[in-house]
Structures are given as structure tokens and as C-alpha cells.
Amino acid sequence: MRHPTLVVVFDVESVGRRVIHETIGEAAAILYLTDVPAAERADVLRRADVIFAQHTAKDLTTDELSLIRTVRLLQFYTAGVDF
């Protein structure tokens, strides 16, 4: 069985990355979209099972937004989403 792919779409500092890794552990492969070359971003988003976002309208282009329609979970970093 393959591990799900978690794609973090906003910029996360090293401390935050450590927290994400400690929390997720081996339950999912973690990819940071900000580390992915522009030419590979669409492929990474198509493979995502889970998206961890802060503000999708700022973190993703209009074309990229359509690529996350099939994700199983869209989790926002903020407590409430006002946008």
C-alpha cells in the first residue's frame, strides 16, 4: 500500500517543517510546493491526497486550483477561513 501524499502549499520555515514531520511521521510523504521547480508543480498537485494550505488564492495559481479537485482532504493552517 502506498503512503498518501501531503502537499504543503505555503512557505514553511525549518521549525514548522520539523513540527509537520513529527506530527505526520511516516503516515504520509510530505512535499513542500515551494521547493518544487515551477515545471513540476502541476504534477505534484495532481498526485496530492492531502493539501495543507494557508491561503489557496495566494499560494496557488488559478490553473493550479483546478488540479486539487480530487484531493481527499484540504486542511487550512488558520483556525477560520475568511477568504
**N-to-C order of helices and strands:** EHEHEHHE
Instruction: Estimate the global geometry from the Cα principal axes.
Output: globular
DSSP helix count? 4
Mean pLDDT, rounded to whole units? Answer: 92
Strand order in the sheet with the most strands = 2-1-3-4
End-to-end separation in angstroms reads 36 Å
Class from secondary-structure proportions: alpha/beta
Q: Gyration radius, to the nearest Å?
A: 12 Å
Percent of residues in helical segments?
25-40%
Largest sheet: 4 strands, parallel
Low-confidence stretches: none
Overview of the structural elements:
By secondary structure, the protein is of the alpha/beta class. Helix content is 31%, strand content 19%. The protein has helices at residues 14-24, 41-47, 56-59, 62-65, and strands at 5-8, 29-32, 50-53, 73-76. It has a 4-stranded parallel beta sheet with strand order 2-1-3-4, with helices on one face.
Brief characterization of the structure:
With 83 residues, this protein is α/β, with parallel strands linked by helices.
Q: Keywords, please?
A:
globular, 4 strands, alpha/beta, four-stranded parallel beta sheet, 83 residues
List the helices and strands and how they pair.
Layout: E1 5-8, H1 14-24, E2 29-32, H2 41-47, E3 50-53, H3 56-59, H4 62-65, E4 73-76
